[in-house]
Amino acid sequence: MRRAAVAVAATAMAVSLAACGSAKEADGGSDSSKDAAAKKGDNIKVGLLLPENQTARYEKFDRVLIEKQIKELTNNKGEVVYANAKQDATVQNQQVETMITNKVDVLILDAVDAKAIANSVKKAKDAGIPVVAYDRLAEGPIDAYTSFDNEQVGKTQGEALLKALGDKAKDGQIVMMNGSITDPNAALFKKGAHSVLDGKVKVGKEYDTKEWKPENANKNMEGAISALGKDKIVGVYSANDGMAGGIITALKAGGFDKLPPVTGQDAELAGVQRIVAGEQYMSVYKPYAPEAEAAAKMAVALAHGESLDSVAKDKVDSPTTKGVPSVLVPVVSLTQENIKDTVIKDGVYTVNEICTGKFKAACDKLGLK
Questions:
Q1: What are the strands, taking DSSP E only, across the chain?
Q2: DSSP structure class, residue 239
Q3: What's the rounded Cα separation, in Å, for the pair 147 and 360?
Q4: Around 46, how many Cα atoms within 13 Å sit in the side-chain half-sphere?
Q5: What are the residues whose beta carbons fall under 8 Å from the beta carbon of 138, sequence distance 6 or more?
Q6: Fewer beta carbons within 10 angstroms: which end of the chain, N or C?
Q7: Which residues share a beta bridge with 127?
Q8: Whole-prediction pTM value?
Q9: Angle 48-64-52 (CA atoms, 0-180°, nearest 5)?
Q10: What residues pair up with 134 in beta bridges, in sequence order?
Q11: Cα(first)–Cα(last) distance of the chain, in Å?
Q12: CA 212 to CA 189: how far, in whole Å?
């Protein structure tokens, strides 16, 4: 009996020690696991899927900044495999399949259609590939998310429009040009804007703009002018700069002597130039660098199997996943008054890029030299 008791005790001790060893390895305690993680960290393959190339930001800023951050975080050894869906949800689903086949270590995904991508996100997860939802909150089992406070974006636009309208807010009607219904951010922009505008202005016409396309916004605006009459329209809520361009073209063609205030988002170069010229009232400046940095840091950490606690301080719920570790970046209302202190100061554009030819006189008036 004594020998049996000693044998049991010895077995229990062995199991206990084995468990300690396993726990140590799970916490990254073993030197061999640390070495393996470090080696993988320098050589990870990151899949980057962006939704479209109609909006200038994706190719000019997001892609460039994310690729730069991944290189810096992996000692120039990390590889970014890039694909753009050009606003086609079916193509993006196929691109995810290709990324899985290519055995990327992690995906950074900006969804064309947040719902339609859910099954592809699950396939990636099943293949052991974590997914960082970028800029738009994709459905499915995502591991992390970074974007801006999108409801606040809409509030910022609405507040700017009210400021521009001043005492004329109830003298006529406004037109609301929201984004695409396939983009969950568009619903948040709309919600934020309505929370500020409702009861303070009359919305004469409101549209959800297919695929965010400027030509669709242009057509919608032509319809609004025809339905309401140009004398009744005092302002236009536009959810982004691309659509604002299409809207302003329609307003000019519609015979407006003086353009009503028009909002925007993304601080596109053409949008900033329209603001300088006084054709567009404002845009929402979203600093892309911190968003891209957050995505890159979370992607590299997930490829290592590391916790996101040091990077992601927020939690966000999607329709399918609760408590997603998130980084939400604040936004700024960009008007003529702060162009110098935002996009120029941050190096997004130079004065020479903004103040070309026909904008030079307006730039001089604003002190942009």
A1: 45-50, 79-84, 106-109, 131-134, 144-148, 173-178, 202-208, 233-238, 283-285, 314-316, 324-329, 332-334
A2: S
A3: 34
A4: 32
A5: 109, 111, 114, 117, 118, 121, 131, 318
A6: N
A7: none
A8: 0.78
A9: 55
A10: 146
A11: 94
A12: 13
Number of helical H runs and strand E runs in the chain: 14, 12
Ordered per-residue pLDDT tens for the chain, 369 residues: 344 443 434 444 343 333 333 333 333 444 443 444 455 657 999 999 999 988 888 998 999 999 999 999 999 999 999 999 999 999 999 999 999 999 999 999 999 999 999 999 999 999 999 999 999 999 999 999 999 999 999 999 999 999 999 999 999 999 999 999 999 999 999 999 999 999 999 999 999 999 999 999 999 999 999 999 999 999 999 999 999 999 999 999 999 989 999 999 999 999 999 999 999 999 999 999 999 999 999 999 999 999 999 999 999 999 999 999 999 999 999 999 999 999 999 899 999 999 999 999 999 999 998
The dihedral over CA atoms of 259, 338, 365, 360, expressed in degrees to the nearest 10, equals -80
